[in-house]
Amino acid sequence: MTVRRTARDASTAVQAAAQETLDPRVLIDQSREQLQQATREALRYHQQSVPEPTQYGAQQANVALVGGPLDGLLLDITGWRPEEIDDGAALMTELGRWPGGRALYDPRPGEPRPSGVPGVVCRFYYSGDTP
Predict the structure, then answer these.
(1) Claim: this prediction has a pTM higher than 0.85
(2) What rounded mean pLDDT belongs to the chain?
């Protein structure tokens, strides 16, 4: 049963109860029960669809992309050498000035970069597009 179907069933049940009963307290109680059921279904669906974190994911080093078409995304740089990080990245995207081109992202000179720490280790800033 999907979450949408559960919510639709809850709405139908509340409408049917409204036609049968005029006591608002009963309607509120029924609505609350239906909402709790829909919430349980949504939580169960979410738990089934989200994979468990892996050991690799726990040790992953990321760069936060700032500005440009990929603003807010994370780039996995696990295993990159410091020289590669200093060079930045040219990332393929359909969202830039040229479809199928690359968005250029570079680190700012002098910005601190903790090494060996999982999570976001630095930021790459948008510097333009290339075909």
Answers:
(1) no
(2) 78
